[in-house]
């Protein structure tokens, strides 16, 4: 048969050129070892039609086949992602659809709302099984490198709030507030008056209930609201894991809107994932295509250079920039560990298909951050044109505690 000769040649090429610790088990009982070592990953192919994903092994094709049950994969998530990437990079040419292309996405308020709800309104119980107890779904901060997840997330919130010099009585707008952890921390420990906005109904309901439970209704308001519909003036503004959903074309207007909401002497923190491609292209070998289809519809990542440019176009001046890429790789690894530890409950709660999507997504994110395909920057901004004598000094005021300054980028 044609497929037998093609498969035999494919396996021989992989074995000779890549020697991957991978074994392919076919529906007829045949086993193909692709190296002379014990396999770290086993791919089970139940039907001849699934061979196409191996012959063109982009991360999108492999991921889709796994998610849709056309293949089954045995191995640790990190090994699966590492070997999958080695198979893609050793087989495919990094050009065309497999390169770091920038997609053109048509956006609207309704499409943005639908995209947010697709990603976040899975169920609160689903996220509780692998996030920390405060439900913080963004990069943690590992000051010493050995913190557990809850401690690192609290340190991240303190890092943000100290960088923006949050004071008792300040008004704080948190754009994309998630399940409310940052505004609750800001109200409880810094005495701020907070407004948190989200497009996720699940998040809004959860955060509102938690605010009531904690007796913080006089300090915190949670709104189901688009950032474009916010009015008023705020002393401090935070955007954590939000601008990835805005769209590259909308970034100047996004930062202009933030500028319009910021008090004259206010401070903004933008904490977000960026592309490391100079042209703001997505992650390579079809990984970005997989994320767009299954995980983050309409997500777009700008290069940090483009982010800074659009901030300036929006009337904001960056006064402090910090790269937390290694911290996010560590965060994703810890999320993945908790996900694996609760795998049976996650399958029961969300179904096998969603379990498979998120399993490869979390491991893939850890890999992408470790490989410098994507990064994470915290950028502190003020209104452009402020008198220098009124600006905070980064080393003294933005970080506050000396241990936070010396703990920067401790993760190797």
UniProtKB/TrEMBL annotation:
Kindly give the InterPro entries that the UniProt entry links to this protein.
Answer: CFA/CMAS, CMAS, DUF7884, SAM-dependent_MTases_sf
Residues annotated as catalytic: 365
An example GO BP is: methylation
Q: Which UniProt keywords apply?
A: Lipid metabolism, Methyltransferase, S-adenosyl-L-methionine, Transferase
| Gene Ontology MF annotations | methyltransferase activity
The record places domain DUF7884 at 14-83
Recorded hits in CDD domains, A to Z, give: AdoMet_MTases (cd02440)
Give the similarity note.
Answer: Belongs to the CFA/CMAS family.
Name the UniProt record assigns to this protein: Mycolic acid cyclopropane synthetase
Q: State the organism named in the record.
A: Solimicrobium silvestre
The top of its lineage is: Bacteria, Pseudomonadati, Pseudomonadota, Betaproteobacteria, Burkholderiales
């Amino acid at each position: 048969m044609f497929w037998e000769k093609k498969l035999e040649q494919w396996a021989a090429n992989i074995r000779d050129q890549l020697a991957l610790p991978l074994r392919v088990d076919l529906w007829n009982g045949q086993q193909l070892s692709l190296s002379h070592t014990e396999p770290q990953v086993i791919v089970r192919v139940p039907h001849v039609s699934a061979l196409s994903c191996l012959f063109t092994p982009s991360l999108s094709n492999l991921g889709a086949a796994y998610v849709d049950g056309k293949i089954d994969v045995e191995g640790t998530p990190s090994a699966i992602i590492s070997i999958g990437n080695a198979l893609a990079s050793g087989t495919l040419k990094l050009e065309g659809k497999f390169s770091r292309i920038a997609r053109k996405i048509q956006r609207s308020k309704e499409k943005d709302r639908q995209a947010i709800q697709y990603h976040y309104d899975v169920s609160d119980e689903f996220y509780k099984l692998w996030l920390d107890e405060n439900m913080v779904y963004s990069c943690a901060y590992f000051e010493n490198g050995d913190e557990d997840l809850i401690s690192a997330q609290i340190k991240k919130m303190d890092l943000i709030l100290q960088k923006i010099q949050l004071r008792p009585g300040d008004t704080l707008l948190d754009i994309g507030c998630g399940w409310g952890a940052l505004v609750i921390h800001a109200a409880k420990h810094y005495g701020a008056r907070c407004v948190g906005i989200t497009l996720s109904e699940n998040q809004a309901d959860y955060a509102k209930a938690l605010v009531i439970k904690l007796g913080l209704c006089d300090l915190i308001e949670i709104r189901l609201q688009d950032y474009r519909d916010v009015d008023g003036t705020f002393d401090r503004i935070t955007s954590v894991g939000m601008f990835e959903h805005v769209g590259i074309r909308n970034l100047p207007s996004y930062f202009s809107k933030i500028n319009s909401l910021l008090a004259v002497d206010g401070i903004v923190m933008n904490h977000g994932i960026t592309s490391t491609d100079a042209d703001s292209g997505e992650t390579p070998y079809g990984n970005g295509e997989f994320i767009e289809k299954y995980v983050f519809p309409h997500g777009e990542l700008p290069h940090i250079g483009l982010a800074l440019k659009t901030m300036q176009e929006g009337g904001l001046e960056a006064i402090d920039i910090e790269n937390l890429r290694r911290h996010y790789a560590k965060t994703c690894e810890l999320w993945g560990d908790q996900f694996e530890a609760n795998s049976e409950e996650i399958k029961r709660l969300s179904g096998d298909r969603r379990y498979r999507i998120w399993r490869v997504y979390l491991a893939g994110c850890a890999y992408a951050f470790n490989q410098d395909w994507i990064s994470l920057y915290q950028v502190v901004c003020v209104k452009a044109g402020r008198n220098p004598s009124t600006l905070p000094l980064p080393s003294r005021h933005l970080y506050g505690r000396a241990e936070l300054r010396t703990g920067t980028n401790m993760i190797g």
